[in-house]
C-alpha cells in the first residue's frame, strides 16, 4: 500500500514526487515510457522560485540555455521591445535536460519507487473510491498497485482522467492553431537573451535561443496547412521571410527533425474525486502559445503537495484539501486559458495598409513615439476593456 501513486513521471508527476518524497511519504512513480526523454515542447520556462524549491535551479543555470530577459514583438515590419516584466528571466531548457534533472532528484529519495515501461490501463475501485491502478509491463504482464491516493500526472491524453470520468469544465471554442518547431543552428543570437514573437500574415512564429548556440523556432498556423509546413524546405523558407530574423541567418541548418502537433483541443477539467486527483496537462491543457504549461504543471504540483501532506497526516479532510487545491488551480489556469484563446483568435485579424502606415509613423517619428509612451496608460486601459468584452 503506497501513500501515493503518481501516474506520469514528467514535470508534474516528478515534481510532486520530489515535494512529497522529501516529507518521507511512500510513493510509486509510474510511467509507460522506458526513459523520460524528449517530449513536444518549445521549453520556455518563466518561474524562478519553484525550481529553487525543487533544487534543480543550479543545473538549469549551467545547462547552457541563456537567460532570456527581453521580449520582442514583430508586427509585420514593426518592432516592439522591452525588458520582460512578468518574470525576472525566462529560459529555454530542453525537456530532455529539464526532465532528467527532475529524475535525478527523484532518485535521491529511496522512499520513491520508480516503475518505468508500465502502461496504466485501469483503476482499482472500492465502494466508488479509487484505491489503486492496474498496468501492463513490457512483457504483457499485469501489475496491480494499491495506494491511498492516485494522482493522474499523465498529460493531455490522461488515462486517469478518462477512467475517472473527470468532467470537462471548459473547452476550446475556436479552431486552435497547429504548432511545428525545430532546433536550428546558423542564426546569430541577439546581444541580450530575447524571446522573439512574430505576427505574420499566415502564422505566428516564436524564436528563442537554447543551449549549444542554437535557436528553437516554432510556427503556429491553421491546422489545414500542416502537411505543407512539415516540409523542411518550406519551413526554412518561412524562417528566412521573418524580416528581423533573416539578416541574422548565416547558414540555417535544422538539427534533428521538425516536431509538432496538428490538432490541439485546450480544456480545463475537474481536478478530483474520491481517491484521485489530476495535475499538470491531465487537469488543464492550455494551447502552447501561452508558453506556461511547464511552469503551471510544476507550480500546481507544489500546491497539491502541500494539500496532500495535510490530508495524509490526517490534519484536514479530503474535501477541504481538494477545495483549496482546485481554488489555486482555477485562479491560475482560467485567465491563461482565456488569454490563449484570444491571442489565437487575433491571429486572423489582418492589418490594413493605413494601419501599417500609422504604426510606421509611431515607430519612426521620435515625438510620436514619446507621446505614445506618455499616453500609454490610457491606451492600455482601452485595450484591456476591449479584451474584457
Ligand atoms: C508543441 C508544444 C510546445 C510546448 N511548448 C511549451 C513551452 O514552451 N513552455 C511550456 O511551459 N509548455 C509548453 N508546452 C506544454 C508542456 O509541454 C506541457 O504543459 C507539460 O509537458 C505538461 O507536463 P505534464 O507532466 O503534466 O505532462 P506530460 O509532459 O505530457 O507527461 C505525462 C507523462 O505521463 C506518461 N503517461 C501518459 N499516459 C500514461 C499511462 N497510461 N500510463 C503510464 N504513464 C503514462 C507519459 O509517458 C508522460 O511521461 C508545449 C506543448 C506542446 C505540445
Protein traits:
FAD-dependent monooxygenase, monooxygenase, eight-stranded mixed β-sheet, single chain, 29% strand, binds flavin-adenine dinucleotide, seven-stranded mixed β-sheet, 3 domains, FAD-bd, D-Amino Acid Oxidase, Chain A, domain 2, FAD binding, oxidoreductase
Could you explain how this protein is built, in words?
By secondary structure, the protein is of the alpha+beta class. It has helices spanning 11-21, 49-53, 57-61, 95-107, 159-163, 226-229, 232-240, 293-312, 318-346, 353-364, 366-374, 376-388, and strands at residues 2-7, 27-30, 44-45, 70-75, 78-83, 91-92, 112-115, 119-126, 129-136, 142-152, 168-171, 178-187, 194-199, 204-209, 215-221, 249-261, 267-269, 272-273, 276-278, 284-285. Strand 8 (119-126) and strand 9 form a beta hairpin. Strands 1, 2, 7, 8, 9, 10, 18 and 19 form an 8-stranded mixed β-sheet that branches. A 7-stranded mixed β-sheet has the order 5-4-13-14-15-12-16. Strands 11-17-20 form a 3-stranded antiparallel β-sheet, with helices on one face. It has 3 domains: 2-43 and 94-173 and 265-343, FAD/NAD(P)-binding domain, CATH 3.50.50.60; 178-261, D-Amino Acid Oxidase, Chain A, domain 2; 361-388, no CATH class. The chain is built from 12 helices and 20 strands. Bound molecules: flavin-adenine dinucleotide. Residues 7-13, 30-33, 36, 39-44, 119-120, 153-155, 159, 179, 260-261, 280-282, 288, 291-295, 297 line the site of flavin-adenine dinucleotide. This is FAD-dependent monooxygenase. InterPro entries: FAD-bd, FAD/NAD-bd_sf, Geranylgeranyl_reductase. Pfam families: FAD_binding_3 (PF01494). One of its GO terms (molecular function) is monooxygenase activity.
Amino acid at each position: 500500500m503506497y501513500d501515493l501513486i503518481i501516474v506520469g513521471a514528467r514535470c508534474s508527476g516528478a515534481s510532486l514526487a520530489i515535494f512529497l518524497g522529501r516529507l518521507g511519504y511512500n510513493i510509486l512513480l509510474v510511467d509507460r515510457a522506458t526513459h523520460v526523454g524528449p517530449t513536444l515542447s518549445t521549453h520556455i520556462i518563466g518561474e524562478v522560485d519553484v525550481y529553487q524549491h525543487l533544487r534543480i535551479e543550479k543545473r538549469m543555470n549551467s545547462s547552457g540555455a541563456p537567460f532570456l530577459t527581453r521580449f520582442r514583438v514583430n508586427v509585420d515590419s514593426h518592432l516592439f521591445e522591452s525588458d520582460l516584466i512578468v518574470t525576472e528571466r525566462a529560459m529555454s531548457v530542453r525537456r530532455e535536460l529539464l526532465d532528467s534533472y527532475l529524475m535525478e532528484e527523484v532518485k535521491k529519495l529511496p522512499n520513491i519507487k520508480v516503475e518505468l515501461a508500465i502502461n496504466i490501463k485501469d483503476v482499482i475501485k472500492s465502494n466508488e473510491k479509487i484505491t489503486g491502478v492496474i498496468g501492463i509491463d513490457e512483457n504483457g504482464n499485469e501489475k496491480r498497485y494499491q495506494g491511498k491516493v492516485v494522482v493522474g500526472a499523465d498529460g493531455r491524453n490522461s488515462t486517469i482522467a478518462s477512467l475517472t470520468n473527470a468532467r470537462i469544465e471548459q473547452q476550446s471554442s475556436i479552431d486552435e492553431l497547429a504548432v511545428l518547431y525545430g532546433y536550428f543552428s546558423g542564426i546569430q543570437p541577439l546581444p541580450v537573451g530575447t524571446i522573439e514573437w512574430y505576427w505574420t500574415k499566415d502564422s505566428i512564429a516564436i524564436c528563442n535561443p537554447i543551449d549549444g548556440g542554437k535557436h528553437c523556432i516554432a510556427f503556429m498556423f491553421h491546422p489545414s496547412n500542416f502537411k505543407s509546413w512539415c516540409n523542411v524546405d518550406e519551413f526554412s523558407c518561412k524562417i528566412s521571410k521573418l524580416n528581423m530574423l533573416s539578416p541574422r541567418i548565416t547558414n540555417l541548418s535544422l538539427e534533428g527533425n521538425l516536431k509538432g502537433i496538428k490538432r490541439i483541443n485546450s480544456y480545463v477539467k475537474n481536478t478530483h474525486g474520491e481517491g484521485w486527483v489530476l495535475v499538470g496537462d491531465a487537469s488543464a491543457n492550455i494551447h502552447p502559445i501561452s508558453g506556461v504549461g511547464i511552469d503551471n504543471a510544476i507550480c500546481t504540483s507544489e500546491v497539491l503537495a502541500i494539500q496532500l501532506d495535510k490530508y495524509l497526516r490526517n490534519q484536514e479532510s479530503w474535501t477541504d484539501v481538494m477545495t483549496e487545491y482546485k481554488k489555486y488551480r482555477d485562479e491560475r489556469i482560467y485567465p491563461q486559458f482565456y488569454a490563449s484563446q484570444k491571442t489565437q483568435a487575433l491571429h486572423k485579424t489582418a492589418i490594413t495598409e493605413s494601419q501599417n502606415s500609422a504604426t510606421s509613423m509611431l515607430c519612426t517619428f521620435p515625438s510620436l513615439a514619446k507621446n505614445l509612451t506618455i499616453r500609454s496608460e490610457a491606451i492600455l486601459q482601452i485595450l484591456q476593456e476591449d479584451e474584457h468584452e
